[in-house]
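Suppose you are handed only these lines of text.
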Amino acid sequence: MPDDCIFCKIVAGELPATIVDEDERTIAFMDIAPATRGHALVIPRAHSADLLSVDPQDLAAAALASQRLATRMRERLRVDGVNLVNSCGAVAWQTVFHFHIHVIPRYEDDPLQLPWKPAPGDSDEIAAAAEQLR
Ligand code: 5GP
Ligand code: ZN
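From them, the structure of the protein bound to guanosine-5'-monophosphate can be written out as follows.
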């Protein structure tokens, strides 16, 4: 683990965190700067920087833990919806470089907004990108 990774320190118990769920591969704890009431983070115990380097089994375990937490949010916090958010890379807003999934409760009257304005795209550009991805 990198010496300066705060999430590794939370896993090791060297930094405090409000843990709400744990299993063999993951832990989940409350975000210190919540987007909405109940905002939590799911992380693999094992360090990896981001989506592109996380162990596939840790990724699967984190996805399952996120679903578990979302279910609990619906039952106990009476949320109206949930966003799962992962940021991969600084340009994509990642600030902590230990892979994590944000589990963000959504409420009818919350202030969050979609970070892009949906508008029809250029069909040639869409097709060109698809060609590169296939
Ligand atoms: P990112 O910006 O990388 O997608 O998400 C990092 C998240 O970690 C942010 O939402 C931030 O509020 C949260 N965070 C940063 N430092 C700490 C900490 O020491 N403890 C907890 N619980 N959350 C943290
Ligand atoms: Zn780490």
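What can we learn from it? The first helix runs from residue 6 to 11. The two ends are 35 Å apart (CA to CA).
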